[in-house]
Specification:
2 strands; 69 residues; Rossmann fold; mainly alpha; two-stranded parallel ribbon
């Protein structure tokens, strides 16, 4: 399903839940592409949990709520 040498899974909320469960059990972090963009911008790997927008499993609608605060 996921190659054993995988260090991180960059995906989105449409990812198959079985894939996310496998990654979680294998200790493979999974993040949205926003994490990758920030890593490229900063030139170093940013914290996987450094921002809610990196979370693949955030609730739908959270982005709208956070933008208004």
């Amino acid at each position: 399903m996921i190659p054993p040498e995988t260090e991180i899974l960059v995906t989105d909320p449409t990812c198959d839940p079985d894939v996310l469960e496998f990654a979680e059990k294998a200790g493979i972090p999974f993040v949205k592409p926003e994490w990758l963009v920030q890593t490229i911008i900063t030139g170093e790997k940013v914290d996987f949990a450094g921002h809610i927008k990196y979370s693949v499993t955030e609730e739908v609608g959270d982005d709208d709520d956070n933008e208004n605060n």
